[in-house]
Q: What sequence folds into this?
């Protein structure tokens, strides 16, 4: 039997780590598929790839195409906001903030009125998608698709905000009568990223909850949806080959001490808050010594900033373990980071060990808190801001707490929210005394978001594609 060639457009860290990981490629090969990756330009131009299996995703051509068509840009922006949720309302406010001080008041007022009016018209998402697919047909991959001999395609996301280039590629493939499948790569994509950019042959979602939202918010027929689970979380289900004591010793931490894990975001002021409390004032936190782990967010805005470079030295001087989520070079050379993304495997990595073996995690309502729930790690969210001067609203805890996926009852029941520093200290000590608190709630929350947690999401995704070609 000849191999089935499947085209996979990739752009960005998460999609690359999910759909290019060696174990997923091995599963594809074992099921008779041969992937042809259409790589984001920054990845493609950083390495020498086999031309039989790698092509460049024409990101620059797509961007130029959009730039020449003002109406198309307007429709795509509007498509981001036509899914009416708490989060898209907040993102619309963020969009208004971005133009508030750079445009005349009359222009800002007109933009707010007409955009908010249009986004609330029933079925506006379907109408915008019809307009885009009917009158705007970029066709930069026709030759590549034909020469590659593709029989189908698989995209991360469904062409909504953040996945627009993959959506363009999907429509090009559909124009050549290829079945195109989609796999959701983050738990908030359906409710937070706006209306879809194309209708897939079948959409792989994580759970029944996500399937219901795809039907209700995006109008995707139930017959075109299958629950497969989150491919990237298969690795958290595997047993760990190294025990807790051995792992902590390997990163120069004391197994006799409890371990507090801070997983931060891109907002650098959070790290200053944490340094002040857990390093300078650590006697306030606990009378007993503890291990402290900080995992910075892998973004150049944080890791390339002078503030982080100073903080990094201070953390290391105090014996804090800094977990590296992916190298970002200050000089701008990101090839090491790209190499990590391209070869990211589902086997246990440092993050998996930290999520299993820490005693409590402090976070700010990010995706890693779901990963913590999967690994039965208690989570405390920072529900307050000490430093707010100069921050726009979307950088605050108030913004994060109002997002749709962060207001779900099961999510709130599975974790605790600290309203101030004293509240944070109290919750930390409660979990250090009993890590098993809220265990059932964490499991219920993880299942509600992820469906079956059996480590077989990759198998189900491939079977879904194979059964529908």
A:
């Amino acid at each position: 039997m000849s191999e089935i060639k499947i085209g996979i457009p990739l752009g960005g860290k998460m999609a690359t780590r999910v759909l290019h990981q060696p174990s997923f490629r091995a599963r594809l090969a074992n099921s008779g598929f041969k992937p042809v990756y259409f790589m984001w330009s920054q990845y493609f131009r950083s390495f020498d790839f086999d031309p039989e299996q790698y092509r460049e995703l024409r990101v620059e051509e797509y961007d130029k195409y959009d730039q020449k068509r003002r109406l198309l840009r307007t429709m795509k922006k509007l498509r981001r906001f036509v899914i009416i949720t708490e989060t898209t309302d907040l993102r619309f406010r963020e969009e208004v903030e971005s133009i508030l001080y750079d445009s005349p008041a009359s222009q800002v007022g007109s933009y707010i009125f007409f955009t908010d009016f249009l986004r609330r018209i029933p079925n506006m998402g379907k109408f915008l998608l019809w307009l885009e697919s009917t009158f705007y047909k970029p066709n930069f991959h026709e030759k590549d698709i034909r020469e590659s001999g593709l029989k189908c395609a698989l995209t991360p996301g469904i062409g909504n905000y953040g996945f627009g280039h993959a959506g363009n590629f999907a429509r090009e493939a559909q124009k050549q009568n290829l079945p195109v499948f989609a796999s959701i790569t983050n738990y908030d994509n359906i409710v937070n990223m706006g209306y879809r950019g194309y209708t897939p042959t079948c959409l792989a979602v994580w759970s029944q909850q996500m399937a219901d939202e795809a039907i209700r918010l995006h109008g995707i027929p139930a017959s075109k949806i299958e629950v497969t689970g989150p491919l990237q979380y298969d690795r958290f289900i595997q047993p760990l080959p190294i025990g807790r004591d051995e792992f902590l010793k390997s990163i120069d931490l004391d197994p006799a001490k409890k371990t507090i894990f801070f997983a931060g975001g891109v907002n650098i002021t959070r790290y200053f808050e944490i340094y002040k409390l857990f390093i300078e004032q650590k006697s306030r936190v606990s009378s007993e010594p503890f291990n402290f782990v900080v995992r910075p967010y892998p973004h150049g805005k944080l890791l390339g900033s002078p503030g982080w470079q100073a903080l990094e030295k201070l953390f290391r001087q105090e014996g804090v373990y800094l977990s590296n989520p992916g190298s970002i070079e200050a000089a701008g050379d990101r090839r090491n980071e790209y190499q990590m993304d391209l070869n990211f495997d589902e086997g246990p990595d440092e993050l998996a060990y930290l999520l299993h073996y820490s005693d409590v995690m402090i976070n700010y309502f990010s995706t890693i808190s779901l990963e913590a729930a999967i690994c039965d790690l208690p989570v405390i969210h920072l529900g307050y801001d000490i430093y707010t001067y100069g921050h726009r609203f979307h950088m605050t805890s108030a913004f994060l707490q109002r997002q749709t996926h962060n207001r779900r009852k099961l999510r709130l029941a599975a974790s605790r929210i600290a309203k101030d520093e004293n509240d944070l200290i109290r919750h930390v000590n409660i979990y250090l005394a009993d890590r098993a608190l809220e265990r059932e709630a964490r499991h219920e929350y993880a299942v509600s978001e992820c469906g079956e947690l059996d480590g077989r999401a990759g198998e189900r995704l491939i079977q879904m594609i194979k059964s529908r070609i």
